[in-house]
């Protein structure tokens, strides 16, 4: 039996599901039961009746699954797969910042640790941020962390003046506007889609801005046969699966320096080993979990 079949067999035996993000390797997406953006993954984790959730993504995504499922075993193929953006905000630093602005609510992007979630009033994802922020009272004072680019985008789209944490994703924040301009010149008239973790000057040039799932939906529903894609290259697998006749032009195409190296730490071998040995398992302090659950539940109720 090859590795893929062995994984399928183990999933059946153990009543396990594999959740994977769109940025993981194609072979990982192929063995997953559900592939999605952070919002879809959180929703699926909240609804599953599997006994084991194997999370092929990055650490904060697996933590979110555990926060929502205390009685389930959450397996992580490689515990070192963290998120550079989430690491920009340490809970103790946020606590000190909060103390300076006691009348502000804390709105956190889901790309943050459980400890940061526990200090937050509401969690948002790139898939629901605008919708949720628009539901808050207009005069609500808000600290937004950890992604400064997404926060800036929300401020511009909603007319808010949230205080922004100075964090960024090392993949999206390193995209240069010159590369986008080069692609636009090479493919005149071709529309572009971008993830809101990119810097303002790129988002202003994009024809559509949204989460990975929102970009996929937009492209699938569009009549355009070509797109310039301003996000991590792993999404190409699902883009081509859904749109076999469309063509896609990626930023820095084929240059692994621009991949999310953490997402790529998930592979068939470590997924198989994790399912077989039921480790590494993500464990969490119960008090921390309960505190982190509240803003996440609020998000799921509001979105
Ligand atoms: P999405 O929720 O849009 O999939 O984004 C997650 C992420 O980490 C993007 O870098
Ligand atoms: Fe984190 Fe950026 Fe990787 Fe997304 S692409 S998981 S924000 S480091």
Task: Give your account of this protein's structure.
It is a single chain. This protein is 42% helix and 15% strand. With 303 residues, the protein is an alpha/beta fold. The chain folds into 3 domains: 3-82 and 263-283, Rossmann fold (3-Layer(aba) Sandwich); 85-164, NadA-like (Rossmann fold), CATH 3.40.50.10800; 172-258, NadA-like (Rossmann fold, 3-Layer(aba) Sandwich), CATH 3.40.50.10800. A 4-stranded parallel β-sheet has the order 2-1-3-4, sandwiched between helices. A 4-stranded parallel β-sheet has the order 6-5-7-8. Strands 10-9-11-12 form a 4-stranded parallel β-sheet, sandwiched between helices. It is globular, with a radius of gyration of 19 Å. The N and C termini lie far apart (42 Å). The mean pLDDT is 97. The structure holds 1,3-dihydroxyacetonephosphate and iron/sulfur cluster. Iron/sulfur cluster binds at residues 58, 83-85, 111, 169-171, 197, 232, 260, 262-263.
Q: Mind sketching the topology for me?
A:
Layout: H1 3-14, E1 16-21, H2 26-31, E2 34-36, H3 38-47, E3 52-56, H4 59-68, E4 73-75, H5 91-100, E5 105-109, H6 114-118, E6 122-124, H7 129-133, E7 142-145, H8 148-158, E8 163-164, H9 177-186, E9 192-194, H10 200-203, E10 208-209, H11 212-221, E11 226-230, H12 236-242, E12 247-250, H13 268-277, H14 286-302
Parallel strand pairs: 1-2, 1-3, 3-4, 5-6, 5-7, 7-8, 9-10, 9-11, 11-12
Residues 37-38, 111, 125-127, 169, 195, 197, 211-212 line the site of 1,3-dihydroxyacetonephosphate.
TL;DR?
The protein is an alpha/beta fold and 303 residues long. Helix content is 42%, strand content 15%. Iron/sulfur cluster binds at residues 58, 83-85, 111, 169-171, 197, 232, 260, 262-263.
């Amino acid at each position: 039996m090859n590795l893929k079949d062995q994984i399928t067999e183990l999933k059946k035996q153990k009543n396990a599901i594999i959740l994977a993000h769109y940025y993981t390797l194609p072979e990982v997406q192929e063995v997953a039961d559900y592939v999605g953006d952070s919002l879809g993954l959180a929703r699926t984790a909240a609804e599953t009746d599997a006994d084991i959730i194997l999370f092929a993504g990055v650490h904060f995504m697996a933590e979110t699954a555990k926060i929502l499922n205390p009685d389930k075993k959450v397996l992580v193929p490689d515990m070192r797969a963290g998120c550079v953006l989430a690491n920009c905000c340490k809970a103790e630093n946020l606590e000190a910042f909060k103390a300076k602005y006691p009348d502000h609510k804390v709105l956190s992007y889901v790309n943050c640790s459980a400890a940061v979630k526990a200090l937050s009033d509401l969690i948002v994802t790139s898939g629901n941020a605008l919708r949720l922020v628009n539901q808050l009272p207009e005069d609500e004072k808000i600290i937004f962390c950890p992604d400064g680019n997404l926060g800036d985008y929300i401020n511009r789209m909603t007319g808010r003046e949230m205080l922004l944490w100075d964090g960024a994703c090392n993949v999206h924040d390193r995209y240069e506007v010159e590369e986008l301009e080069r692609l636009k010149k090479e493919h005149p008239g071709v529309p572009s889609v971008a993830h809101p973790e990119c810097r303002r000057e790129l988002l202003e040039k994009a024809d559509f801005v949204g989460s990975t799932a929102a970009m996929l939906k937009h492209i699938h529903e569009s009549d355009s046969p070509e797109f310039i894609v301003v996000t991590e290259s792993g999404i190409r697998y699902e883009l081509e699966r859904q749109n076999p006749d469309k063509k896609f032009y990626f930023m820095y195409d084929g240059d692994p320096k621009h991949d999310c190296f953490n997402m790529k730490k998930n592979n068939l071998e470590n997924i198989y080993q994790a399912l077989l040995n039921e480790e590494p398992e993500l464990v969490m302090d119960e008090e921390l979990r309960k505190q982190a659950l509240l803003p996440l539940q609020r998000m799921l109720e509001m979105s």
